[in-house]
Design goal:
Length: about 150
């Protein structure tokens, strides 16, 4: 868990407001993108999750797990034995199971960003090969992608 928080902290510190893009090593594909992944944190403000025909869109709020953990921590009793009993009961409740699963899912987003080599937030990754930094706006990222040499069939 420390590593996940550390990676999130590093990603958040590297965040930049300027829009920058990185061209894939193999050049651009002639095909319209099939998948776009948007990585952001709370500082990005409200992120509008849009739909684009024919493209799978996935959004990851990378600081969400820490916020969810904070919510659970606020409920913990200060006595260690009471806290252990609370967590045992909470982890087996429907609310607890949902919350814990949301935390796990959130950290998978952090791992996904790390695996794709995302170095700043926000970032929009197109087909696991092309990244546009500085925006969560999928349409803006697609315009930059096309301008840089990506094409729409």
């Amino acid at each position: 868990m420390y590593l996940s928080k550390h990676v999130l902290f590093v990603l958040a510190l590297a965040s930049s407001c300027a829009v920058a893009s990185t061209q894939p090593k193999g050049g651009f594909s002639d095909a319209w993108p099939k998948k776009i992944e948007v990585f952001y944190d709370y500082s990005a403000g409200n992120v509008s999750e849009v739909e684009v025909a024919g493209i799978e869109l996935v959004y990851y709020q990378l600081d969400k797990p820490a916020g969810l953990q904070g919510e659970i921590s606020k409920k913990l009793p200060t006595n260690l034995d009471d806290a252990a009993a609370f967590m045992s009961q909470y982890a087996n409740s429907e609310e607890g199971k949902k919350q814990i699963q949301a935390i796990v899912d959130g950290y998978q987003g952090v791992g996904r960003a790390y695996g794709l080599g995302v170095t700043k937030l926000p970032a929009t990754v197109i087909d696991e090969r092309y990244v546009v930094y500085g925006t969560t706006d999928v349409n803006q990222a697609l315009r930059i992608y096309q301008k840089q040499g990506g094409t729409h069939e």
